Amino acid sequence: MTDQALQGQSGVQRWPAPAKLNLLLRITGRRADGYHLLQSVFQLIDLCDWLTYELLEEDLVTLVEPIPGVPEQDDLTVRAANLLKQESGFRQGVKIGIEKNLPMGGGLGGGSSDAATTLLALNHLWGLGFSVEQLMQFGLRLGADVPVFVYGYSAWAEGVGEKLSPIMLPEDWFLIVKPDCHVNTRQIFLTDELTRDSKLITIADFTEGLVDNDCTSVVRKLYPEVDKALIELSKFGYARLTGTGACVFAQYQDKNEALQASLKVRHLGQVFVAKGLNRSPVFGMLSQE
After folding, report:
1. CATH assignment of 4-167, given 1.10.10.410, 3.30.230.10, 1.10.540.10, 3.40.50.300?
2. How do residues 267-281 score in pLDDT, each as one tens digit?
3. With contact defined as beta carbons under 8 Å apart, do 12 and 54 qualify?
C-alpha cells in the first residue's frame, strides 16, 4: 500500500477498514443472552472503507458527514471512539471522516471494520496504550464481528466470533456481487428455520473442503435477489454466501478470470473484484507511525 494511497487530498492520513468474507459459517448453538455460537473462517480482502481522524481539543466525538439513515450517535465509529474515552478517561475529541466503499447490509463487515479501525487508530493517535486484546474486548461490546478486524489476521473463529486463531489462506481473487437488497442480520438469526445445532468441525475439515454456510437456505428463501445472484454466479464459479449476506462470492486463483466473470454478472447488482489478505492493512499504518 503506497503512501499516496494513504493520503487524502488535504494530506490527512487515511486509515483503511478492510472487508471480510466468511468462507465458512456454522451455527453450533445459542447462548442465554441470545448470541449465537458459531464456527467461521474469516478472510480479509483488500476492498476497504477509508477513515480520517481530525483530533480535537474539545471533548467531542463527531462525524464530518453522517451516513444517511444512521443517527450520528448510533454510528459504530462514534460509539467506538466514545467507548475508548469512557474506558480511558480521555477528555479530548475527534472528528471522523468516512469514505464508504463497502455496501451496507452486504455481509462484508463494513460497519464492524470501521469500528475496529477507529479503536486501533485512536488508541494510537490518542496514546492510550490499550493492548490488542483489550481492544478486541471493547470491540465485542460493539458487535460480534468487530474483534476479528481488531485482531487483524484471517482467522478461524469460534464462540460468538471472539475466539480467534490465525489461519493462513491462499490470497486468491474474489468476485463479489451485492444484489439490490439489504439483508437484516437480526431477522436471519431470529428465524425459527435457522439451523442452530451444526456439529463442531476442525480446521482440517475446512481445508479438506467443508465450506458450508448455515444461513444460506434461510437467506435464499427470504431474499429472492440473493437466490438469483447465487444461481447466476454459479455459472462462473462455486458461488457462496458471506455471513448472512446479501453479498455472494466466487473464488479464483487468476485475477483475469475473476475480471472476465465480473463482466457477465453486472446485471445482478454491485460488483467487486478483490484480493484476499492474511494481514490487515491497518497494521501497515501503525508501523509507519
Report:
1. 3.30.230.10
2. 999 999 999 999 999
3. yes
Active site residue 145: yes
**CA separation, residue 237 to residues 210, 231, 250, 257 (Å):** 16, 10, 6, 10
pLDDT tens for each residue of 214-264: 999 999 999 999 999 999 999 999 999 999 999 999 999 999 999 999 999
Model-wide pTM > 0.90: yes
Give CA–CA dist 106/231, Å, rounded.
17
Of 85, 145, 178, 214, the active-site residue reads: 145
The mean pLDDT of 138-144, rounded to a whole number, is 94
DSSP-derived letter for residue 140 is H
Instruction: Write down the domain spans for the chain.
Output: 4-167, 173-277
Q: Is the pLDDT of residue 44 over 80?
A: yes
Catalytic residue, candidates 20, 49, 75, 178: 20
190 CB contacts (<8 Å, ≥6 apart)?
none
Kindly report, residue by residue over 5-34, the tens digit of the pLDDT.
455 445 579 999 999 999 999 999 999 888
Count CB atoms within 10 A of the CB of residue 247. Answer: 29
Q: Which residues of the chain form beta strands (DSSP E)?
A: 15-30, 36-56, 61-63, 93-99, 155-158, 163-166, 173-179, 240-241, 248-252, 269-277
Total residues found in the chain within this entry:
289
CB of 24 closer than 8 Å to CB of 40: yes
180 labelled catalytic: no
Name the architecture of domain 173-277.
2-Layer Sandwich (3.30)
Quote the pLDDT of residue 105.
Answer: 86
Q: How far is 145 from 148, CA to CA, in rounded Å? A: 6
